[in-house]
């Protein structure tokens, strides 16, 4: 994860606020986050997470197929096991682990 000085822009703040609300044992894909917020897309969410996501539960944001963040697989899988995240092999079971947000 990059080290960036200064405050994140408003979009990044909204992404990080949402990621902080994802409950233990649940995940959202990058696209889920963008869709929930109604702005940006998976790449923009990924950029926010790679730049400012170190202080939030980053392991709860996954690729659309449920695979963990590239380069952080072992730490991610360890966190999922601790939190009881539903898994299929070494990826999140999106059918059971996906969080739909506060309105589910």
UniProtKB/TrEMBL annotation:
Methylated-DNA-[protein]-cysteine S-methyltransferase DNA binding domain boundaries: 10-70
Xref: InterPro entries: ATL_DNA_repair, MethylDNA_cys_MeTrfase_DNA-bd, MethylDNA_cys_MeTrfase_DNAb, WH-like_DNA-bd_sf
UniProt KW keywords: DNA damage
SUPFAM superfamilies xref list: Methylated DNA-protein cysteine methyltransferase, C-terminal domain
Name of this protein: MGMT family protein
Keyword check for Repeat: no
Cited CDD domains: ATase
Annotated region described as Disordered, given as residue ranges: 85-104
